[in-house]
Amino acid sequence: MKRYGNRHGRSGVRAYEIGADSIAVQFAGSDEVYRYSYRSAGRERVEHMKALAEAGRGLSTFIARHVRNDYER
Predict the structure, then answer these.
(1) What does the alpha-carbon distance between residue 30 and residue 47 come to, in Å, rounded to a whole number?
(2) Which residues pair with 1 in a beta bridge?
(3) pLDDT mean across residues, the chain
């Protein structure tokens, strides 16, 4: 997994890994990894999450507001 940029130092995201049709996210304070896929969260939202992850800002907020529980188990 790639360490999240966390540009403001307050993010709830620790690391992420981008796949062809998904993004896996590890949150701060947890060893759990949550996988958001086209099937579970929708293509548009997953692609937006990928862009936020690469930019290093806004990912945690986007997840909390738009895809909170839409991860695969």
Answers:
(1) 24
(2) none
(3) 94
